[in-house]
Amino acid sequence: MNDKLDANGTCVLVTGGAGFIGSHTVVCLLEQGKEVVIVDDLSNANEKALDRIAQIVGEEAAERITFVRADVNDRAALDAIFEEFDIDSVIHFAGYKAVGESVEKPIEYYSNNIGNTLTLVDAMRDHGCKKLIFSSSATVYGDPDALPLTEESPKKMCTNPYGWTKWMIEEILRSVAFADPEWDIVLLRYFNPIGAHPSGLIGEDPKGIPNNLLPYVSQVAVGRREAVHVFGNDYDTPDGTGVRDYIHVMDLAAGHVAALNWMSDKSGCEVFNLGTGTGTSVLQIINAFSEACGHEVPYVIEPRRPGDVSANYADCSKAAELLGWKAQYNVADMCRDSWNWQSHNPNGFEG
Length: 351
Ligand code: UD1
Hints:
Blueprint: E1 11-15, H1 20-31, E2 35-40, H2 48-57, H3 59-62, E3 65-69, H4 75-84, E4 87-92, H5 99-104, H6 106-126, E5 131-137, H7 161-179, E6 184-190, E7 192-194, H8 213-221, E8 228-231, E9 243-244, E10 246-248, H9 249-262, E11 268-274, E12 280-281, H10 282-293, E13 299-302, H11 317-323, H12 331-344
Helix pairs in contact: 1-2, 1-9, 4-6, 6-7, 8-10, 8-12, 10-12
The structure holds uridine-diphosphate-N-acetylglucosamine (UD1).
The site of uridine-diphosphate-N-acetylglucosamine has 22 residues, from helix 7, helix 8 and strand 8.
């Protein structure tokens, strides 16, 4: 028994806990009284996020964080964690996530994302910890036949290796749960996470040129880039630009905590959409962000980006019914919090 364990709490291992969604989830877990062990190799995260998490939750709660700088593929590092801590459950965020890069480096993406998941579940089994939440993505729905997307909507062809890693890991984890009923696995399919902690202390800090819309818009708003490139205005959507279901990262973080609390006495593998159920176009996002930052965000219309779908948004009734979870923030809140983070940290965690 680990003597650091909080009397009310349990110990959660969070892979990729220094990253965008991971860091916000760690804040929520600490606020719930849980102890958290973060394993992150910082390949796409900044160690300063850990100090910021501590600032948000306060000294006392921050004592419940342990940070291990390691690759999830490092089996010896995982074994050492499971031996030292009484890990109750694992939330697995760690993975490469740049869509374009995955097309250039398929071997690295398959090997890292799938490899680290296999290393993790093998270590978990050997140490008798069989409760896992996995970060999946709405990307597994491919080009949808009908909207909104429910968990019953078919998984379809992905357009890039990043998407396929999510697709395949879901199947791997289903097989794991099928083979051994002691496993309790939840696959969370995120729609488009944006926003930041309302304190402005943590947020999304992509390395290099952002691939995703929101970090690009906020870097234009803060003057780091000239104009947003809108990828296509000839889609079959109300204003011709792509429609997505943007979800505040704090809602997403709360969704993980809700899933964790729900799964305590379950068995098997369950999947949940985490979105808001509302579709928002690229131009609506640019307008909402302009409102939030108080000036027009310039944009130019470009050709469509290969692999993009015209629209997707979620039906989140399953999460509402079973997890008692529902998104609380709207797009205006998301833009306000993204801007608060970006304007206070124009160069991300580096200042
Ligand atoms: C992308 C990935 C998806 C991944 C998700 C989370 C693709 C094809 N899909 O989703 O697999 O799970 O990120 O990281 O990349 N847009 C612009 N200009 C930009 C950037 C985006 O107009 O500079 C548009 C896109 O065409 C799209 C919308 O904004 O309509 C959202 O794009 P993005 O933020 O990249 O997310 P997705 O493509 O939905």
